[in-house]
Design a protein that fits this description.
The structure is a single chain. This protein has 285 residues and is of the alpha/beta class. The protein has three domains: 117 residues, Periplasmic binding protein-like II (D-Maltodextrin-Binding Protein, domain 2); 88 residues, D-Maltodextrin-Binding Protein, domain 2 (3-Layer(aba) Sandwich), CATH 3.40.190; 67 residues, 2-Layer Sandwich (Alpha-Beta Plaits). It is built from eight helices and 15 strands. The strands form three sheets. Strands 2-3-1-4-11-5 form a six-stranded mixed sheet. A five-stranded mixed sheet has the order 8-7-9-6-10. The longest helix is centred in the C-terminal third of the chain and has 21 residues. The two termini are 30 Å apart. The mean pLDDT is 94. Bound molecules: 1-O-pyrophosphono-5-O-phosphono-alpha-D-ribofuranose.
Length: 285
């Protein structure tokens, strides 16, 4: 039986979360960080630990079948590669930054200027769209020091917390694109591997839905139950169970993690007591 070959970043910002999502979907792998590849014990999958920038070409050539990779890397190097799932972690943006004291009002200010970057295709697409011509200096790593050593007037790099820009006295002036980790697939995938991929995608979706939700349990007087259900509609409809104490019910439901504190405030206002909020590991609708 063939195995699906999945590439993950060997080291760097995506590695840990990539391994975590594989574990959460039940793909258990011995620590393979120092290896090129490792087989899953309980699923027809092999994990390849590769350099981020090499992954798009491996996908194109079918050397690996799928990858967990930053969308920004695919935009730079993997135009024809299909993204099948956004994974919600390693969010960042590709930005233009200039020295803090530079006068910058709009993109036209970069006309004829020197821009240091590891993302030449992304920068060229953005400059072309804005009809600006600049000189690109392509460097791999430590792009942020280029203005300070007189190599460039601006940089284009990924920004996450913004602390690298801050430490190097740079300010963000344009966002070229936003990115997050994605599941990407080789254009040459046979039917057998597609079937394995479908299973993986289904599992990932269950984990992502679980991560985005919380399970809520609370007690309420029976005359408040309907008001509370209005605030907590749940997946289909909440479970309402009688408490041993007469005139009271227990309500169980699911809510969106992002609305959590607002919903809790509303529940308290409507008379809910003993509110418990629990994480959800997986959710299959
Ligand atoms: C990226 C980027 C910056 C930093 C930005 O490097 O090149 O150096 O992250 O993140 P921040 O806004 O949170 O400070 P990364 O750590 O991915 O490694 P790299 O230098 O190998 O690209």
């Amino acid at each position: 039986m063939s195995k699906l070959r999945i590439a993950v970043q060997k080291s760097g910002r995506l590695n840990e979360d990539s391994m975590r999502i594989l574990k959460d979907i039940g793909i258990s792998i011995d620590n393979g960080k120092d290896q090129l590849k490792a087989s899953a014990k309980n699923f027809p999958v092999e994990v390849f630990y590769l350099r981020n920038g090499d992954i798009p070409q491996y996908l194109k050539d079918g050397v690996v079948d799928a990858a967990i990779i930053g969308e920004n890397v695919l935009i730079e190097k993997g135009k024809d590669i299909n993204i099948v799932e956004k994974l919600g972690f390693s969010t960042c943006r590709v930005c233009i930054a200039v020295p803090k004291d530079a006068n910058y009002s709009n993109i036209k200010d970069l006309e004829g200027k020197r821009i240091a970057t590891s993302y030449p295709n992304t920068v060229n697409m953005f400059l072309d769209k804005n009809n600006v011509k600049a000189n690109l200096h392509i460097i791999n790593g430590s792009v942020e020091i280029a203005p300070n050593i007189g190599l460039a007037d601006a940089i284009v790099d990924i920004v996450s917390s913004g602390s690298t820009l801050f430490k190097n006295n740079l300010k963000e002036v344009e966002t070229i694109l936003k990115s997050e980790a994605v599941l990407a697939v080789s254009p040459v995938l046979n039917a057998e591997k597609q079937a394995i991929l479908d299973k993986i995608q289904f599992r990932i979706q269950s984990v992502l839905k679980g991560r985005a939700s919380k399970y809520v349990l609370l007690n309420a007087p029976n005359d408040k139950v309907q008001d509370i259900i209005d605030v907590l509609p749940g997946m289909k409809s909440p479970s309402v169970l009688p408490l041993a104490k007469s005139g009271w019910s227990s309500i169980h439901s699911v809510m969106n993690k992002n609305e959590f504190w607002d919903v809790i405030d509303a529940l308290k206002e409507k008379g809910a007591e003993g509110i418990l909020v629990c994480p959800i590991e997986k959710m299959v609708l």
